[in-house]
Write a structure and sequence with these properties.
- This protein has helices spanning 46-50, 66-75, 83-90, 153-166, 224-227, 242-248, 259-266, 334-343; strands at 23-29, 32-37, 42-43, 98-104, 109-115, 121-127, 133-139, 144-145, 175-179, 182-187, 203-207, 210-215, 220-221, 274-279, 285-290, 301-306, 312-318, 323-324.
- It has 356 residues and is of the alpha+beta class.
- The strands form four sheets. The protein has a seven-stranded antiparallel sheet with strand order 9-10-14-15-16-17-18. Strands 4-5-6-7-8 form a five-stranded antiparallel sheet.
- Strand 7 (133-139) and strand 8 (144-145) form a beta hairpin.
- The radius of gyration is 22 Å and the shape is globular.
C-alpha cells in the first residue's frame, strides 16, 4: 500500500463554519504554538507543511495536524459524529496518511488502522472490553503492543493477523520512502557480517557478580536482555544484547564495519528500541535512535552524525521545539538532517493540559 488521497467516506468529518475563517493561536506546550484557520483546516506548523496535509480535502480527517485537532475538538460539536471519528479527533494527534477502514460483521462495529509507509508503528482504533473506542499502538516489526492494552484477546489476535497479512514489513530490509518528491534511503539495523566457525563456542562473561553464557556464532546469550531480542534474525544488530556487542568488538568482522556502524555497535545510543540509518550525500550517513518507553516520554531524538574530523558523535534534537540540546549541532548537513528528523512521525503526542 502507499500513501494516497483515497479515503473512506465513513471517515469524512463536518467542515467548520465560515465564522472560523480567522487565525487562532493554539498552544500544545511552551515550545509548540501554531496559528490555525479552522474554516480552511490549515495550520502554519512545520508538521502540517512537511506532511503535505493541505493536499487532503477539508472534510478528510487526515488534514488535521495536532493543532487543528485540538481546536476542532474545542470549537466543533463532536457528539453528532460517530464514535470512531470522535476518538480519532479527541486523541489530539495528527492522523497518519495511510488508512484502512474495516466494517467487521463478526464484531459488529468498525475498526480503523492508520500508518505511515516504511515506519513500524501502527495506530489502531477499535473498541475496548468496555465497548469504548480506544487507540492503541502496535509495532509490526517487533510484533509488540505499546503499553497496556484494553482490547480483548480475540480482537488482539485478529488485529495482529490482519496487520501482518496486509502491511508489508520493511523493517528487516532497506526501505525507500518518497517524501516531498524526494526519495530517501534508510535501513533500521546494522548488518553484522557472518562469523566463522571458530566463534561457535560458549563464552562465560561476568557482570555485577553474575555470569552469562554466550555464543557469538549463534548470536545467543543467557541474559534477560537477549530474551527480548532473540526474535531478530542472525545478522541483524538488533539481536545483540550488551554482552554480545561487547564481545563482537574484539572480532576482525567488527573492523569491517564502517565508522558509523562501529559507533552504533559500541555505544548505548545504537542499542535503542528503534534505529533509522539514513544515507546522505557523498556516501555520508547519519542515524536516529530512540526508545519506546512512553512512561518516561521524551521529545528528544538521538542523532548520530559525523564531525569534520571524521569521528561520529551523538547529538540530541527536539523536533517539537526545533532545537539542539546545549546548542550543539552537526557540523555537516545540519539542515538536511533537521528536515529528515522533523518529517518522521514516530512519537505519540505527550498528554499536556489544554491551553488556548
Amino acid at each position: 500500500m502507499s500513501d494516497n488521497k483515497k479515503f473512506p467516506k465513513e471517515l469524512e468529518i463536518p467542515k467548520p463554519p465560515e465564522r472560523y475563517n480567522k487565525n487562532i493561536k493554539v498552544k500544545i506546550s511552551k515550545d509548540d504554538v501554531a496559528n490555525v484557520n479552522l474554516f480552511m483546516m490549515a495550520c502554519d506548523c512545520d508538521e502540517y507543511k512537511s506532511s503535505n496535509r493541505s493536499e487532503y480535502e477539508k472534510s478528510d480527517i487526515r488534514r488535521m495536524c495536532r493543532h487543528i485537532a485540538k481546536l476542532y475538538k474545542k470549537k466543533i460539536r463532536t457528539d453528532k459524529i460517530d464514535s470512531i471519528k470522535t476518538m480519532m479527533i479527541e486523541s489530539g494527534e495528527g492522523i497518519k496518511p495511510s488508512i484502512i477502514y474495516l466494517e467487521s460483521e463478526e464484531l459488529g462495529y468498525s475498526i480503523c488502522i492508520a500508518f505511515q509507509i516504511g515506519l513500524p508503528w501502527i495506530d489502531v482504533y477499535a473498541k475496548n472490553i468496555n465497548g469504548i473506542y480506544k487507540k492503541h499502538v502496535y509495532n509490526y516489526s517487533n510484533k509488540e503492543w505499546q503499553g497496556k492494552i484494553s482490547y480483548n484477546k480475540e480482537l488482539i489476535d485478529a488485529l495482529e493477523s490482519f496487520i501482518l497479512e496486509n502491511i508489508q514489513d520493511n523493517s528487516n530490509a532497506k526501505a525507500n520512502e518518497k517524501k516531498n518528491g524526494e526519495e530517501r534511503n534508510y535501513h533500521q539495523y546494522v548488518e553484522i557480517p557472518e562469523l566463522s566457525e571458530e566463534y561457535n563456542k560458549d563464552i562465560i562473561v561476568k557482570e555485577d557478580n553474575k555470569k552469562y553464557k554466550l555464543n557469538l556464532f549463534k548470536m545467543e546469550c543467557s541474559c534477560k536482555e537477549f530474551d527480548k531480542k532473540k526474535h531478530y534474525r542472525l545478522g541483524d544488530s538488533r539481536r545483540m544484547c550488551f554482552h554480545l556487542r561487547r564481545e563482537f568488538w574484539n572480532t576482525t568482522e567488527f573492523k569491517k564495519l564502517n565508522k558509523l556502524e562501529q559507533t552504533l555497535i559500541k555505544n548505548n545510543y545504537g542499542n535503542k528500541d528503534n534505529l533509522f540509518i539514513f544515507e546522505l550525500k557523498n556516501d555520508l550517513s547519519f542515524a536516529i535512535s530512540y526508545d519506546d518507553d512512553r512512561e518516561e516520554y521524551s521529545s528528544w531524538y538521538n542523532v548520530i552524525a559525523r564531525k569534520n574530523n571524521g569521528q561520529y558523535i551523538c547529538y540530541a534534537y527536539n523536533p517539537y521545539s526545533k532545537r539542539w540540546a546545549k546548542d550543539k549541532n552537526p557540523e555537516l548537513y545540519k539542515e538536511e538532517i533537521e528536515n529528515l528528523v522533523n518529517s518522521i512521525d514516530i512519537f505519540a503526542q505527550k498528554d499536556i493540559d489544554e491551553e488556548y
